[in-house]
Amino acid sequence: MPSFDIVCEADLVEVKNAVENSAKEIGTRFDFKGTSAAIELKDREITLFGDAEFQLQQVEDILRGKLTKRNVDVRYLDVGKAQKIGGDKVKQVVTVKNGIEAELAKKLQKALKDSKLKVQASIQGDTVRVSAPKRDDLQAAIALLKKDVADVPLTFNNFRD
User: pTM to 2 decimals?
Assistant: First the structure.
């Protein structure tokens, strides 16, 4: 029976490259000379450093630009609040989303059930597997989900006949 998986995960290699390019640009930009502006990546957390919230916003804009150039959807980023650290410096933690949350998985499952397509959706951990007797039904399900769920970057992979 044909099936595919719905996942929500960013390409971490491209994210790492974008962070490194952002750090290089921050190091060479004239308006950041002599400031504590910096960016670093640990696992799935990107930490932005700066002297003020305005500077954090500039660093975040650089990061978003680099991610966009590398075809990484910026909707994967979960931006936290700016926190004061020693002195008059601030930092901000940006988390890279991975996996589909249970609430979203139920929403996807309900949308497929309500569409009257002949597909079955099952939640398997942080992915949703969709199966159907015909490939055409699966392609219709992909088109429906791309149209209905615009607030989360969904990836459709593991397509099997």
Answer: 0.84
